[in-house]
Protein 1
Amino acid sequence: MKVRLAVLFAALGILAFLALLPLLYMVSTALKTFGETITRISPNPLSLEFWPRIPQWVNFAAAWSYGEGLAHSFFVSVVVASVTVLGVLATTIPAAYAFAKIPFRGREFFFGVFLTTLMVPETVSTLANFMTITRLGWINSLQGLTVPFFASSFFIFFLRQYFRQIPETILEAAQIDGATTFQVTLRIAVPAARAPIFTVAFLAFTGSWNSLMWPLMATNTLDWRPLAVGLTKFVTEAGPQAHLSMAASTMALAPIVLIYIIAQKQITDSVTRSGIVG
Amino acid sequence: MSRLSRPLAEARQRRANREGFLFLLPAGLIILIFGLWPLVFTVGMSLFRWRVVPGRFVGVSHYLRLFGDPQSLLWIAGAFIAGVLSWVVVLPRGRRVFRLILVLAAVFCVVMGWAIASNTGDEDFWASVRVTVWYALGTVPAQLAAGLSVALLLGRLRKARQSFRVVFLLPYIVPAFSAAAIFARLFSLRPESFANQILAALGQAPQQWLGEAKGLFTLLFSWGTGSATSDLASFGQAWAAGPSLALVSVMIFNLWVFTGYYALIFAHGLAQIPRDLMDAASVDGAGPWSRFRYVTLPLLTPTTAFLSLLGLIGTFQSFAHIYVLRTAAAQGTSDPVSVVIFNTFFQRQDFGAAAAQAVVLLGIVLTLTVLQRRFQDRRVHDES
Amino acid sequence: MKGNLTRGLGIAGGLLALAISLPAQSFSTIDVKGVTVTYWHTGTGPTEKGLQSLVDEFNKSNPYGITVKEEYAGNYNDIYNKTLTGIAAHQVPDLVVAYQNQAAAYRLPKGIVDINPYVNDSQVGLSPASIKDFIPGIYESDINPQFHNERLGFPHQRSMEVLYYNLTWLKKLGAAEPPKTWDEFAALCRKATNVQKGTYGYAIDTDASRVFSQTISRGGGFLSADRQDFDLDNPAIVDSMRLMKQLLDEGAARKVAEAYGDQADFGNQKVLFTIGSSSGLGYYQQAVEHGANGKFRWSLAPLPHSTENPVQDLYGASVSITKTTPQRQLASWLFLKWFTQAAQQKRWVEISGYFPTRRSVRDSLGPYLVRNPVYAKALDILLSSDVVTEPPFSSYQAVRAEITKTYNAILDGADIKSALAKLTRKANQINADARDN
């Protein structure tokens, strides 16, 4: 038994190391001086040259202030991503429930339509959406950055999967008790699918945080420039100064990791339970 | 009894329709405006000459240029007919062989049409379709398998599970171009790069990785070289060369990025499997592999089906995580259709042609989706 | 009676014809008070700050009541993508930086306007003396033959392809000066190559501008005789490709490994020569300062050439005025006119490190040139060489990508003549397609 656990840990350890290696590279570069980034290079984390001689923590402060507006962009991203998550949940949960549990006419048809919209390549939908946003006057605004992403067929289908698993008996029981479908959704389905819903929230947040092409098109000024755009600007500015761009990238990463760790508790707690009550 | 319950059933259906509509409305509205309208707009745009602003109406001219010799269109049409027939035809005594013949005929027609189009139509576009197919083949199964493996391994842990999960999700959280900047270094053509050091440890010569336009099979087995004269021969040669090493590097990158993501989704699927079923199986003496094969895997099929379907669609559409790793030296061998559409759009400012390419891509993905669902319908273990 | 009437009609008709043929508007009748215009640029960091202070000054001091808002809109590619999308959606800034071929791409859908009427206007335009002050090669570069010689942009900065060389190393190899011919260049590359030490002669960058600069240095170009189409398999290009392939095969030249890899290698004294834009000067300075084996003497020179005089590839984005309203267009021009005056040019050079577009600016740059001797040398090269600019066609953006692809294919072993013939065919097909809508 102990041996099996050890093997398990070893296997996971190796995989985790592979997952982390590029990020170790990112952090070690962020902590080097400029000179070290072009002279002291090694791909092997076990060798000394991979790591800086003296960690330059000052790089993080430098990146923060060098990149004008990075702080502002950071807060923009927090707001935009949060609003996006709220919007996603508001549209996705009812839609997923409808697809899963409400036998309305045309359900398969709409399912197909929603699925098809996933197949439109990003480039061309960006142009059409940009024209729509322009006509609505939503350039350089919160709405322009969030509303187009409020509904994703991917999340709807993902949640539908979990709503489908809820036994009909429970739902019928609640309906007999006089609950409206809306109340059933809110009081029974949502708590039962807490884990996937948190996952959807997390993925929606990350997707918004990292999205680049759309905010690049939809914003022109610093006012609503999210972090992803600010980061690319910074990287262009930094040019070959890899230590600064890596420092900025690391800082862009940190908030999501924190949020994930916090949300993680919720997700894992639900996931370890054997699924559905009853 | 039935005469009494019919009006009740109708009322119930009406109520269901109303509720369904209301529940779908918020999402539907957004998808209508930002998902469906672009689709309609794109189809419309593909019928015009459109250099940034609309020009004259040209009907299917863009599509004809895309396919080149009209013969290729005939072959594709033939493939459709054969395919539809193989689906629809009701066979006397259910002779399987006929269906198989029709399917093979469809495949043959696709190959012929594609080969002709590759040489007479938009070369770059059809080459990119091939790249996209390689990319899908190389990533979807690998990411599914890797994601499932990690999810299974994590499922057996109790304490360190949280930390490990974060670690595996980090690659997905990192912004694409930051991760790409790092990977470009790890997979650079320098002999000291990470990838080349591994090759050196295995006793192999350093490679150009992200800068290598030569196919994987050409490098390994020398396939796909030599001169070819006919359309079919050069088409076969292009395929025999395999995905370029640059594309393979991009696949590795995407495997790194998405494994944790797939593992997260699989974890939910695994959590759905009732503990008592697993316990019953162990009590019955089933070892871990048998439990996996006869309990886990079948019960996981809804998740697997969902992921492979959306993974397929996502892969064919994938842009950001591929574009960031483009190099000049790869000469377009790591450009899937999404990148070609992007370049037709911006580099050539030919919005009409780009729209036509997008519609053709959509047609391909739609066809594959339909095929995949059909395939799954025959094998999926449905939840009852 | 009838005669008088006919004469009267004739005079009236003549006057009418005269009135119609006169320019539709005089700029002096347009009121620009209170107009705000936006300017999309690529400036970041200190460059952006410098630009902001210049713009602030204009806003405070201009007598027209115009306000300019400058906005960082991404790098040149980003701005290009955004502007194209913007033209499609009728949402454009007023002023935008654009390379000549990008400006052509904007002009085709009538997204930008011809600047000549503004330049030549007696009230708001430039005086002949002011026009003469522009460096000739630069001033002509914004005239576009694809659009009846309209002026699609106005130049505020330029840079140039140069040869960067390690002087200390060069001297060690027995050469007192940078190579003047391609044969000398090749010989020095070979001498610099040492497999054990990991050193080599030239870092091959396959950007289309490198191909152009090498081609013109051999007296060739990219255009056909009638300057309407591309001619990309002429002897000058063939020779350039052949030499590079040869050096690569001998190990005397290597492909650039990653972004800024050539500068890093240069700074680490691994490579003797690189060819690149003069605007990269600052990065080279940094790379040398922090390089592995200590500092060394280095500089830049015109590319080796088989022509009598050095022929240099001059490039840079100009500023284009988008088609909006007569008021905003005029306001944009007035800012542009001020921005490109000698006094502001001097400050722009100090902020950005680019070359000025007016000759007279050189004289006022004294202290700056003393502080930056390598820049001073580059500026002198600009003023003394023959300068050529790259094709300003709207199709050039796509053709550049094809050129890079072909260059890489040749380096990988493709037959040079047939690869270039194929390239020419494709380039002309793209060009013909891009001519109309």
Protein 2
Amino acid sequence: MNNNINFSRLFNVANILSLLAVVISILFLFFKGLNYGVDFKGGTLLEVRIENKNIQIQDIRSSLNTSDLGDVNVKQFGEEGDFLIKFEKNANENKKFITDLKNSISKKINSAVNFRRVETVGPKVSRELLKQGITAIALALSAMLFYIWIRFEWQFSIGAIVALIHDVVITLGIFSILSFEVNLSIVAAVLTIVGYSMNDTVVIFDRIRENLLKYSKLKTNEITDISVNETLSRTVITSLTTLLALFSIFILGGEILKGFSFAMILGVIIGTYSSIYVASPVLNYFKVTQKTLLKDDDI
Amino acid sequence: MLSFTKIKVLSIYLILLLTIFFASLNFKDNNLLNKKVNLGLDLQGGSYILLEIDTKPLVNQKLQTKVIPIKKLLNKNKISFNNFTVSPNSITFTIDPKKQDKFKNLFFKQQDNTINNFISEYNKFELDLEFNQNKTFIKFSNFGLVSLNNAALKQSIEIIRRRIDDVGTKDPTILQRGDKRILVELPGIDNPERVKELLGKTAQLTFRLVSKEDGFGSEKLILSENKEELTVSKRVVISGDNLVDAQPQFDNQSNQPLVRFNLDRLGAQKFGRITTENVGRRLAIVLDNYVISAPNIREPITGGTGTISGGFSFQEATDLALLLRSGALPAPINIVEERTVGPDLGKDSIDAGIFSLIVGFMLVIVFMFVKYKIFGLVSNISLIANLLMLIGILTILEATLTLPGIAGIILTVGMAVDSNVLIYERIREELKTEKSIIHAFDTGYNKAKITVIDANVTTLLAAAILFIFGSGPVKGFAVTLGIGIITTLFSAYFIARHLTSVIVLNDKKRKYFKL
């Protein structure tokens, strides 16, 4: 591949679009919020398999109507006869209530019921898990910042961190817009996105630095263009193989991994975009030149 | 970068063979070294239960035991007191302010202090004393609370262990988590609901007489069987502490399941005396504030054994006996988090996980071969080696593989080629300007090295943070992702580089150098 794409021509347009996407995401996160799963909200999640495949979702709903479960949410999950039930009550108060619930559902819909998965999280633990998740993401961002700060000049650090925040905010924003459930595995996905996006940015930055030293007369945007072009085939190939693996999990890996792999797919696409269109333009704004490198080396 | 000493090549392939050997152990059931990748609860089915002890009632209970000794101490030293009350976490009374110092000295006496225990571990007293005008407040000191909490937690863990061992689940894990919590992991259990009930029961057993009239020394309790309300004396005849054994049995005459218990010597004596004195009265058998049964005492029971019948099923009798044998929990326990996966879902998850791994792997392999031809083949060989090494290291560490862990492996497959791609793309650039192929490959590897390391450190950092903060399945993801990065670096920089060097050095006709 011999590329000579004028990326920097689109920097301004891309930056406006990115900014718009970030603002929309923040508005959604602020006003609509995230659809937290039981991990972060507390409550109970049941994955049930009903023997009698004729049972419809409304039968399950009505079988739960009389119970004191709080806000109940039932949805089809995977194969026919499989449902996911979520409600506010948790096992804190009554240790026997899951057994009781199973018997009551089974009696009302007149079919054997298999509770394939039960997750119940009390309010205290869910608050702790949420706090842990936020801490982990914040810590990951700081660790990346620190690493970049050691390895590169500060202008690069800012570029990288702006790109990372861009990726995380938009990924979560899309989860908010689509009301997709956010649970522990989504936090894992976000952390991996942070790692992946950083990885992608670092490869381009490495090249930019190398080219800054090689060509002393070129302008910053020319250098970024050359560097992005030189690394482009690598960027595309790695994103493709990673996406191949992720789509394979998304389509074939079962219902439980769907949310996780969806978040990762979003993250890989956004992360690849941001390395080129967010991280690199930041260097332009700071007018990073060979001098910047030589001067900062003393610090 | 293309030259390898013989010893280096030997050690690279030795390491590879060793990890492959460990990876292969997973396919045999009882292997020599007994090493295997453990399946997480989400894959093999089982329960993860986080329990939290509630020490509030215990604090009150302990304070209650101080009431009589404090009153005795006051009387003995001729300190008159008024308005003696016990609230959930303090004792208050009023004494003459002039006598406060005297009481203080007695209360904080170092030697033979039966009321206020001195905790030598912290060099502090268990109870605190405070005066407010003529009022006296006694409560647990922070150190007293900590030591009470720790003792209760330790004892609870012990009792929970006994209960779980008694149920007979295989490979349970019981761990302390923080200062109030107990983590219980039960792989592959059939009936999590039953175990949960057994874990959560305080199982405080007491034998008390049913009294005729209401009064200060009695309380109203419900008889489980027929919801009858009974007035039961607060005085405990014997408690579960006096039990040495309990077994489920069938009654000889009615064939009803019941629990036969044996008392220790002290308990037997007391039980004998009370039953002799109270023939004809009803004796309430109370478990956690519910009366299981309240039979009439027909004749004195002096043998130190007795039976409890309460219209149980045999399962209920078995569970009650188990609870009585294991002893009472010192404080109530709540389930604050539970995750249970049935074995059939676990099986489905493994199947789906492995299937998507194979498909993802094939896709990447085909893609790499199409894109890079012979060097794609090299990259693919190193990818297979990478995967085998990853499984081998997981086996050596006896790590736990979870469903997100499998996702981590698939992701590693997708991202592992990155290192090789970085290198090959670099070599291709070098080939444009460099005449000597060997030289181009050499500089390609060299220049890409820094980028490859930079790029992988970032993912490794993310994995490390995830490992520290994640729990259960998510931790499994961090493990495979982290180890995957290390095996990726090894396979790219040793295995793939060696194979590349063999091709390049033997490719005199420059048949393959076109990337």
Protein 3
Amino acid sequence: MADPLYRAAPPAALRVEPLGELTLIFDRRSMQTHVVAPPMPQILDAMGDDICSAAVIAERLSVAFDIERAGGAASIIAERLDELAALGLVAAA
Amino acid sequence: MSAAHTLVDLLAGRRDAATLGRGEWDGVISAARAEAMLATLAHRLADATVPPAVAALFADQRAAAATARQQALWEAEMARRALAPRGIEFVLLKGTAYAAAGLSCSEGRQIGDLDILVIAPDVRRAENALLNAGWEWVKSDPYDDHYYREYMHELPPLIHKTRDRMIDVHHTILPRTHRITPDALAMVSDAVRSHDGFAVLSSADMACHCAAHLIADGDLQGGLRNLWDFHCLTRDFAAADAHFWGKLDGRAELHGLRATVHRAARLARDIYGAELPPGWDRHVTGDGWFRRRLLARDDWGRSRNWLLQQAFYLRSHWLRMPPAMLARHLWTKWRKR
Amino acid sequence: MRYATRIAVGPVQFRIGSDWRAPIAALERLYAGYPRDDARAADATVRLFAARPWRRWLRPSVHIGGDFTVPDALPLPLSMGLLAAEMGMNLQVALGWRRHLLLHASAVARDGRALVMSGESGSGKSTLAALLGEEGWRLMGDEFTLVDPVSGDALAFPRAVSLKNAAIGEVAERVAPGRLGPLLARTPKGDIRHLIPRAEAIAAMHEPARPALILFPRFGGEAAVEPMGEGEAFVRLTEASTNYVALGEAGFATLARLVRETPAFAVSYPDSASGRALVEGLWAEAVR
């Protein structure tokens, strides 16, 4: 099954402001404001500057958050990546 | 001196901003807004002596235009993300193209929809790619839909569901039913890359396309702004290339737009003080009609000369459609009202 | 245009042109106490016009235009020309102002701090602001509040307050008759009368105030107060702003700062008295 590769927006492009339980992200390239909740900010952080697949991100998150690598994590992350791509916050690499 | 005259005098540099009185500023600002040129004027007069309230308004406009420009270029980027993976090439047109290419006419220019040109065989696939990437049809009635597809030069408008911005996908430069039929395939073949990697028309084709919209599109809506685009484009291209006017002449001939492009150049001379080379610098009586229509804007921002407007509305449709079809179209349009 | 006047409210200089004398006369009466600067060019232009020349006299109806027009908007009868003028002024600011973040909110100030009340028509924000303005608060505005991207302050935009239906009587019994405009009966928004802000509020219209409290009022229902998280307040305020998107990063930064620095609550209240009591209670906490 194909595991598409994505790259996150460069750090200078995004202005991230946590506001309570939500995270607001202003994308300077599009002038758009995105209201996101976990795990979106965590996914973007985990990607850094690299080209990643959902599986890679799942691995990084399980290490960073010290959690059991649950089987379904990669497919959940794949869905979130699609959503992030629709918002323009990540792009197909 | 009407507000529209003062506006073009300021843009052309024939009038010193410091000499305007309050009443004139009211008129010029309203006329500029009505012509979608207020931010353009704000850029043009960025270093001029203006009253503090006007300076503040101009600063607002420049900042807003910079934001709007980013948004417009982002639409182009999102179109690229939808079309490139399917191998669909497209050329940016009009305002977004000017911004992508960093051209002087893009400073302060209001950009509305994203206009792109694809070759005719790619239209269906482009449509599907965009629909899959979050665009949807702007709701319209079946008659308009049919008209757009069969006779106009674009798909019916598409609007993005979440970003709420429109994209117009063209496969010809002027409607298929227009009397002039520029060579869209040649334009796409000769497209050049902007430094962001977007395809834009070659200089000569860009000027031809601009003139086509100004003159042949017929109703001269937004005419002063289109003419300013044409003036800035030709001035900048000619400054960079001594042979530009000759190339423009040849390319215009290829597209059947020679008369159109020459008229646009003469109007740019008459209204914005453009300097034209020999062979271009004529005086043609018919130009007066166009000049009057372009400058028919009063100091409350209203279009004057209703009769001229009606004549142009008819002319616009005349240029686009054979007479029999025109009669039927107008009948249907009238009945719907 | 045949008739015209100029009005400055807060940072905005309007010019209003009209095919009829009556709306201009009504405006000049409402805004007689406002300072004029006739040398200043207009930021916003409103036009009240007849669709066809003969409609100036034959069943006169007033179309609203200017810098911005709503293409399919229905005209108003000439008897409601003043309402058309006020709507026209709102329209130009809502669509054209780019210097400050615009919130669809009323605001009142005390001791240099501002209470901002955000809500749609019918939320009671205008009535509450009008009543508070008669009880020692400075009225900053009933329809729009401006927030300065540089300082974060709220700026006053004290237009004539648009009172609707029951609110008219409620306010009328507290103010001198000369403070009220004509009764515009059975408009598309119900009965309307305009309240002229107090002289002190007009005189202070260029004084900013640092926001101290944000409320989202809802008229009707039991008295209730619910604290609102920063994220939710941010989102609700973007929905209440007509120029948030156009301001780009400056809009984002201004709003993030506002919700971080200012506590927000959703409040519902059954009547003005309990509304005002809720306000006073929350204010005392906020400025402690």
